Automatic annotation (TrEMBL):
It comes from the Bacteria. The keyword NADP applies. One of its GO terms (cellular component) is cytosol. Pfam families: Aldo_ket_red. Keywords: NADP, Oxidoreductase. Belongs to the shaker potassium channel beta subunit family. This is Aldo/keto reductase. One of its GO terms (molecular function) is oxidoreductase activity. Residues 17-315 form the NADP-dependent oxidoreductase domain. The keyword Oxidoreductase applies. It comes from Flaviflexus ciconiae. Gene3D superfamilies: NADP-dependent oxidoreductase domain (3.20.20.100).
Length: 341
């Protein structure tokens, strides 16, 4: 059963499973199926929905807005993001400048069909805009009532400290970080999680199932399943590639006895694992069919005993990625390329 947890040191509660529409709504999945999945999430008790202006260049926000139309806004928590190039992708259509933030929040609200978002997230750190400018713009967005809280995504520990310190000076709260985190990819554990705890942020994690690799979908020596993320040429195949080595697939296969012992699937084991880790408030799940939502929700009730958590670490020991420098190395070191003029 879905639970509701405080986000960071704030008074805002979110569902511990969050429905996200990256790589699905507006691109991979027809709108009718997307809407059915959103309604399945609502029926399962999920109240928190995560999207971004860059997903399908705004179309994902539009699809989510239409899917949620008619639902009491006070019963929902809607999260979106700003940073990557959107719209016409001209010289001011990316980054965290005041201009881009102020334009983007209004465009996102219009697409979502709402007066405010609960958490407005910096989708990456902008190395080309002074942090003071970015945080002042976020403060003004909050004061205007267009966002209740601010979050970040894939920021380093040092950058999170910047966000915390400036937000305190300016009188608003940064409540969350949205990193990639799963059994295989644990780069936030050494530095980002301790800093987040000190600064009062929670993790809202994406890719808790490593793009589906931590399920039983991919097997050594077998063709990639038709219609899976690994065969999606619109972005899914690129994002999943790092996890498709024989070594990783064998380690994932070796998790099956642990999942069987708990009476759950490997996908549910992966979700339960992230929810059980310190500083994780919620895990983002995606779905192209309502049945996937219903299966994922079962993980919210699972408690993995300490001895099985240790066994998971033993099974995956050789394939765990936990270098904290990867958060910085994988981040953009300049704004993405855009059209000139």
């Amino acid at each position: 059963m879905v639970d509701y947890v405080f986000l960071g040191d704030s008074g805002l509660k979110v569902s511990n499973l969050i429905f996200g529409n990256w790589l699905t709504h507006g691109s991979q999945v027809e709108e009718e199926a997307a809407t059915a999945s959103v309604h399945a999430a609502l029926d399962a008790g999920i109240t928190t929905f995560d999207t971004a202006d860059v997903y399908a260049n705004g179309v994902a926000e539009e699809v989510l807005g239409r899917a949620l139309a008619g639902v009491d806004r006070g019963d929902l928590e809607i999260l979106t993001k700003v940073y990557w190039p959107t719209g016409k992708k001209r010289h001011n259509d990316s980054g965290l400048s005041r201009k881009h933030i102020m334009q983007s929040i209004d465009r996102s609200l219009k697409r979502l069909g709402t007066d405010y978002v609960d958490v407005y997230q910096a989708h990456r750190y902008d190395v080309e805009t002074p942090i003071e400018e970015t945080m002042q713009a976020f403060a003004d967005v909050v004061r205007a009532g267009k966002a209740l809280y601010i979050g970040v995504s894939e920021w380093t520990a040092e950058q999170i400290k910047y966000a915390h310190d400036f937000s305190k000076e300016l009188g608003f709260q940064v409540v969350s970080n949205q990193p990639q985190y799963n059994m295989l990819y644990r780069v936030i554990e050494p530095e980002v999680v301790p800093m987040s705890e000190r600064c009062g942020l929670s993790q809202i994690v994406f890719s808790p199932m490593a793009q589906g690799v931590l399920s039983d979908k991919y097997e050594i020596g077998k063709p990639l399943p038709a219609g899976s993320r690994a065969t999606d040429e619109k972005g899914g195949a690129r994002t999943i590639q790092r996890y498709l080595s024989d070594e990783i697939l064998q380690a994932v296969a070796d998790l099956k006895p642990i999942a069987d012992e708990l009476g759950i699937t490997r996908a549910q084991l992966a979700l339960a694992w992230v929810l059980q880790n310190d500083n994780v408030a919620a895990a983002i799940i995606g779905a192209s069919r309502p049945e996937q939502v219903n299966e994922n929700v079962k993980a919210a009730d699972v408690v993995i005993p300490a001895e099985l958590m240790a066994r998971i670490d033993d099974v995956l020991f050789d394939v765990i990625i936990d270098d904290p420098s990867l958060t910085w190395e994988n981040a953009p070191h300049e704004r993405p390329e855009i059209r000139l003029g």
